Amino acid sequence: MKNIFSNLRNILCSDKDSVWYSTIAIMVLLVFGQSLSFSFLSWDDTFHICQNPNFQSADGSFLNFWKSDFLGLYAPLTYTIWAGLISFAKLIFGENSNCGEWSGLFHGLNLLIHLLNTILVYEVLKHLVKVENRKYAAFGAILFAIHPLQVEAAVWISASRDLVSFLFGICGVLFALKDRWRQATVFVLVSCLAKATGVVFPLIIFAILIQKRKYSEVTKYLPAFVGAIGFGIFAKFLQPDTALNFVSPIWQRPFIFGHNLGFYFSKLILPINLAPDYTRSIQSLNQDPSLFWPLGIFLAAASGLYFLKRSQGLLALMLITISVLPVSGLIPFGFEETSTVADRYFYPAMFGVALFAANLLSTYQNKKLNTAALALLMVFSILSFRQVRYWENDETLFDYNLSVFPNSTVSLQIKADRYFAKGDYQRSLDELQKVLELRSPNVMIIIKTSLSLENLGRLDEAEKLYNFALEKNIKSTDIYNNLGKIHYLKGQPQLAEKLWMTATQENPLNFQPQYNLGQLYLIQGKFQESLDAFLKAKNIIPQHPRIDEKIREVRSKIR
């Protein structure tokens, strides 16, 4: 391992590059530096970090990320990095600090990794652009860094998975270009542990080696390819198609693939109205053929890149296509229920765009073309700076999203959350009902709708919705827990106990059902059972404000 990092340091350290490193750093900080003051978002950030039971336990249970998936996602390396950052945050802000105080550190991590990724892209481009002048490689790297499509991955904390995966994957590509295949294999496989989409990097290496006519070198990377494919199959097993309410038939998949790539090409050329939710769900594509207009853009772009083979346009097309393969529409994936496209999915594909841009400029070396490219870079920088500002907090992001896409289910759900937090349960319910009109119900929509109904006193309706979910095989610990609470409120403690027991079996690390069992047994006078349940709950969240008091109360009754 020491050898690997020593080699990487030797590759990166060059006095000739210091000016370009500084230029890249300045551009990244100017465009993205404002994100350091941004908050965690209700969209995944708080749930995956602030409310994640694996981070709240004192027994090192974050190691569970290496043993199994978390909410159908196996990304143990990223979660481990987050765990380390949380420990560092508690060291700085105090053990009992509020999660909201840590957001600057997490945004700083994203910014640092995005900067490192850009420098590594620059290093790779130096090997692939056949000119001594490094300004073309620097141009491609800066384009990679500041294109508006990169904003989501760079400033959304939950997208750290994409950044970390790319970091190790692009290191693997760099080592492959240096003919250090063992180190390249290690980095490529580590990339998969940050996010399963890292499986694309062996294919990216294959494409580059074939383009450079190093056919004999390809066989060296077969272990990386086999390992990545095996990891991809394992990750897909954790995220089965059965979790989707709708799966397109196989014959439609190539059209969806072409549509998705065409959509990305359109946003590459005209990066406006970028949003976290484009409302292009897999169902909407099947119901409205007019949404397939990006298919024509893909065919036009592919044709243009093919005829620009001299500028490695064909290789760029291959790299872009390979990079989005896991989320291209050829294989069903969970986010399809919301949108088949997302800016963060294009993050690794921007490497192919950067390669094409650098080669185009170096091939023609035309002053007017260079001037136009610099002007375009400045326009993209301004657009990205503006786009970053929308990600400041829930209100700025999702109000913007709704202004561009009024049918955004993600934004409507966040809006409902805001009403719920204010205690306006009727307006929260109204927003959630709009969501249910636009898409099939999933776990989170069902839970949020039922909680609003429960707070409005409409327990029978909430119970009916939870039972509907279980009948449709939409299951989660929270559904069992909340349904148990409804039965308890309706004077049915035996049913409540059964459901809370089921919840603890579904997820032993969920605090609430363990706590509820402790409360139930305490009321029933089953003090030893109550103590056992409360102790298990404390093991999950040691710092919970009520748990120590409950344990003392039960122990006093046992004596």
Query: What is the radius of gyration?
Result: 25 Å
Unreliable sequence segments: 7-14
Helix content: 55-70%
Largest sheet: none
Q: Mean pLDDT, as a whole number?
A: 84
Strand content: under 5%
| Helix-strand sequence | HHHHHHHHHHHHHHHHHHHHHHHHHHHHHH
Describe this structure in words.
- With 559 residues, the chain is mainly α.
- The chain folds into two domains: 352 residues, no CATH class; 128 residues, Alpha Horseshoe (Serine Threonine Protein Phosphatase 5, Tetratricopeptide repeat).
- The chain contains 30 helices and no strands.
- It starts with a helix and ends with a helix.
SSE arrangement:
Layout: H1 2-12, H2 18-32, H3 45-50, H4 53-56, H5 64-67, H6 76-93, H7 103-128, H8 135-146, H9 151-155, H10 160-177, H11 181-194, H12 201-211, H13 215-218, H14 222-238, H15 253-269, H16 282-287, H17 294-307, H18 313-323, H19 350-364, H20 367-389, H21 394-404, H22 409-421, H23 425-438, H24 443-455, H25 459-471, H26 477-489, H27 493-506, H28 511-524, H29 527-540, H30 547-558
Helix pairs in contact: 2-7, 2-8, 2-20, 7-8, 7-10, 8-19, 8-20, 10-11, 10-12, 11-14, 12-18, 15-17, 17-18, 18-19, 21-22, 22-23, 23-24, 24-25, 24-26, 25-26, 26-27, 27-28, 28-29, 29-30
